[in-house]
UniProtKB/TrEMBL annotation:
Keyword Membrane among record annotations: yes
Its EC number(s): 5.3.1.24
Highest taxon listed in the record's lineage: Bacteria
Keywords: Amino-acid biosynthesis, Aromatic amino acid biosynthesis, Isomerase, Membrane, Transmembrane, Transmembrane helix, Tryptophan biosynthesis
Protein name per UniProt: N-(5'-phosphoribosyl)anthranilate isomerase
HAMAP family in UniProt: PRAI
InterPro entries named in the record: Aldolase_TIM (IPR013785), PRAI_dom (IPR001240), RibuloseP-bd_barrel (IPR011060), TrpF_fam (IPR044643)
TM annotation in the entry: 21-40, 46-67
All residue ranges annotated as the N-(5'phosphoribosyl) anthranilate isomerase (PRAI) domain in the record: 10-205
Pathway annotation from the record: Amino-acid biosynthesis; L-tryptophan biosynthesis; L-tryptophan from chorismate: step 3/5
Family: Belongs to the TrpF family.
Catalytic activity: N-(5-phospho-beta-D-ribosyl)anthranilate = 1-(2-carboxyphenylamino)-1-deoxy-D-ribulose 5-phosphate
The keyword GTP-binding belongs to this UniProt entry's keyword annotation: no
C-alpha cells in the first residue's frame, strides 16, 4: 500500500528576466507570474514577457497578473505572449475576469475571515482565490504577511496563500493554512524584479520538506 502525499503547488511571481525564469523552473516552481501593471517595479512589457516565457517549458503555468486593466490590454497580452492563466489583483468582478476565454484566479487582499467566504461566492468561475495582505493604497506585492488565522478551515475553492512568504516562514504557513498553493515574490528577490536563485531553491525545498512531514 502506498502512502498518500499531498504537494503544495508553488508559484513564483514578479519575474522580469529569462535567467530567473529558468532558475525558478529548475528549482521546481509549478507556475511563474508576470506583472502587467506599469507602476510596479516588477512590471514587464510584451518583449520582456516573451523573453521570460521562452525559458518556461511545458507543464509550468505562465500567469499574467493585472490590476484593473482595460479588456483591450489583457487581450493584447494574450495575443502576444503564451499565457496559461490570468490573475486579477484589483477590483475586477467576475464578468470582467471571465470574458477572455482563459482560466483565471482572483486575488483578494484579506482583512477579515468573511472576505474569503464572500470571494468564493462572488467569483464562481475562478479556478482559485489568492489571498494577499491588505495595505491601503498598495494593490499587491507588499512583502508583508497577514494574520493566517483569518483563513477559514473549510473553503469552497482552492486557496493560494501569498503575502510576505519567505523560505523561513513558508513551512509554518503551510502547516497552519494547508493551502492548495503558495505564491511568493519579494521573499525570493535579490532586488525588486531580480530573483535570488538560492532563495528560490531554498523556498521550494522548504515547501517539499514540510509537505513530506505534514501530509
Ligand atoms: O509584485 C508587484 O509589484 C505587484 C503589484 C501589484 C499587484 C500585485 C503585485 N504582486 C503580486 C505578487 O507578486 C504575488 O501574487 C503576491 O502578492 C506575493 O507578493 P509578495 O508579498 O512580495 O511575496
Amino acid at each position: 500500500m502506498s502512502a498518500s502525499y499531498r504537494r503544495t503547488r508553488i508559484k513564483i511571481c514578479g519575474l522580469t528576466r529569462a535567467e530567473d525564469a529558468a532558475a525558478a523552473v529548475a528549482a521546481g516552481a509549478d507556475a511563474i507570474g508576470l506583472v502587467f501593471y506599469a507602476p510596479s517595479p516588477r512590471a514587464v512589457d510584451i518583449a520582456m514577457a516573451q523573453a521570460v516565457v521562452a525559458a518556461v517549458p511545458a507543464f509550468v503555468t505562465v500567469t499574467a497578473l493585472f490590476v484593473n486593466p482595460d479588456a483591450a490590454e489583457v487581450q493584447n497580452v494574450l495575443d502576444s505572449v503564451r499565457i496559461d492563466l490570468l490573475q486579477f489583483h484589483g477590483d475586477e468582478e467576475h464578468d470582467f475576469c471571465s470574458q477572455f476565454n482563459r482560466p483565471y484566479i482572483k486575488a483578494l487582499r484579506i482583512r477579515q475571515a468573511s472576505d474569503v467566504v464572500e470571494a468564493c461566492l462572488r467569483f464562481p468561475g475562478a479556478l482559485a482565490i489568492l489571498l494577499d495582505s491588505y495595505k491601503p493604497g498598495v494593490p499587491g506585492g507588499t512583502g508583508e504577511t497577514f494574520d493566517w488565522a483569518l483563513v477559514p478551515d473549510q473553503q469552497t475553492k482552492p486557496i493560494i496563500l501569498a503575502g510576505g512568504l519567505t523560505p523561513e516562514n513558508v513551512g509554518l504557513a503551510i502547516r497552519q493554512v494547508a493551502p492548495f498553493a503558495v505564491d511568493v515574490s519579494g521573499g525570493v528577490e535579490a532586488a525588486k524584479g531580480v530573483k535570488d536563485h538560492g532563495k528560490m531553491t531554498a523556498f521550494v525545498n522548504e515547501v517539499y520538506c514540510v509537505d513530506q512531514q505534514s501530509f
